[in-house]
From TrEMBL, chain A:
Organism of provenance: Thalassobacillus cyri
Protein name: Uncharacterized protein
TrEMBL record, chain B:
Keywords for the protein's UniProt record, in alphabetical order: ATP-binding, Nucleotide-binding
InterPro entries hit by this protein: KaiC-like_dom (IPR014774), KaiC_dom (IPR010624), P-loop_NTPase (IPR027417)
Gene Ontology molecular functions: ATP binding
One Pfam entry name: ATPase
Domain KaiC: 3-240
Keyword Nucleotide-binding among record annotations: yes
Lineage: Bacteria, Bacillati, Bacillota, Bacilli, Bacillales
The protein, known as: Circadian clock protein KaiC
Amino acid sequence: MEKKESLPLQMECTMLFQANPYMIESISGLERRLGRQEEDLKPVLNILVKQGILQQIGEGTASLYRYKEPVIITDMDIPDKLESP
Amino acid sequence: MHKQISTGIQGLDAILYGGIPDGSAIIIEGAPGTGKTTLGVQFLYEGAVQADEAGILITFEEFPEQIYSDMKSSFRWDLRQLEKENKLRVVGLSPDVLLEQMMKPDGLIEQMIHEIDCKRIVIDSISLFRYFTAANDFEERRVLYQLRNILRKFKLTSLLLQEQSDLNVSHVPFSHFIVDGVIRLSVRPHLDVFRKRILEVVKMRGTRIIEGEHTYRITDKGIYPLNAAQTIAEHHREAKDKISTGIKELDHLLDGGMDRGAVYMLDTNSRANYMPLIGSILSERLSSQDHLLTVLSSTQTVEELDTLMSRHNIELGKVINEKRVHFIEHYNRQVPSGWEKAVYYVNGLDNEGYDQFLRNKCYPLIQSEISCETKWFVYYDLNTIISERGTDYVLRSFAKEAAFARSLGMTVLVLCNFKEVGEQVASFLERTTNGVFKTWVDGSNQYLQVTKASNGQLSEPYLLESTKEHPFIRLI
Ligand SMILES: Nc1ncnc2c1ncn2[C@@H]1O[C@H](COP(=O)(O)OP(=O)(O)OP(=O)(O)O)[C@@H](O)[C@H]1O
Ligand SMILES: [Mg+2]
């Protein structure tokens, strides 16, 4: 349930990083850029890291996220992957 | 001695006698909208394109995508393409992340520097460090000092953009002490209508500079400083290659006059009265014994040209008798008797026929007279050719004709309304010419500006003022 709801936010994050492929942001930076809250962002970022869309550098609240070169994602068929994390 | 690296901005390199000393950190200071980001990106873009040096743009506040799209729409700089070629990275992050990653062994920035063999970096803007150091001067100074040392360690030539916080220019921020150079951009009101942009090198270790305030413009090619008189003198040509326009100030702007054998365009709109300019240039040519070939336009008949010339003390009838002037006429119009021999009627000719006329009649005439040391001047209104022969015809033939004219040492002045012909055609035409003058009306004033010239200099816009005597205009 929760994951379904997070789909739009996943898209939002993915699109942000796609349009800014060399951006390096912390969660608090992403809060500012997207106007979203940490508690909503965190699970979404975890999913994107698992999917190989983002790379996470460091652990905890200080961790940074950046876009991984799109060898994996050619189009965004996120729903499939979503059901089996 | 440090090697100097080109900023990619011609006028600025001249001011710096070659460029920025390699590996130095320079502050670019200016109020909002003065062009700091533009200058920074231009430095990286030209570095990649001209010098094959990779660069990194660090942007704290803007989204990189905003910069991609702004730079593309304003200057046609395709930064995404450079990124694909590993010549550039536009990195969006926050000041604390930047510092953290720069200090960390093999941090993300260091990795990136090695990945693309980065030589140049721009940080937009260091003013943001102020927030992250909680406006603590001591802390801010420490951070900037650290930053400068890291940049040096990586041997990067850096531009640090800084918002001018203090309007009181006598206050020197501490940041200016720790960097190798400071360039200030500012804007001032000028002639009521214009804001004059001024670039000044406040400090630059390791190179001579041309001191003083240099006017600059932001054009569709980026920042464009207009050079101080000294550098213009270096481009000075021998006077015999120059031909006077009859207007002292304009000649001065052109380092003595138009270049003999070059192709010029006068970009004018319908409201601007360009006839005094044309009158002055043509009469000056005729009184210097040049031969004149001109295409009559829908708005200009032989009689009108006669009137214009007599105002400038040239008797057209006399020149016609000396066979020094020839007209190409696209319309079925009468000329005063005795002048017919100077007129070629092309009103019946289609484009191919017109081409043949040029090749078989017009060019041979010119060539035959060239051989006896005659100097030719050609003047016509391109909008007439466009309306009579079509844009395609002009696009196909203009470059060819320009090359022909140049090869024979003919000087050409073409009138054209850039707005009317459209941006693409105008930019093509502009590239084909050696020089462009632009005149336009703003409010109740008319202005003239040299927007392209062989010395590479753009002029400021000048007010065109009418005077009572020949040449009836002057620039102020
Ligand atoms: N093609 C162009 N021709 C003329 N002026 C242009 C062109 N493109 C942009 N400009 C002008 O350049 C200015 C933008 O400069 P830039 O964004 O580099 O300034 P800045 O000093 O970085 O400003 P800020 O402090 O707001 O970041 C704008 O004022 C814009 O009007
Ligand atoms: Mg800016």
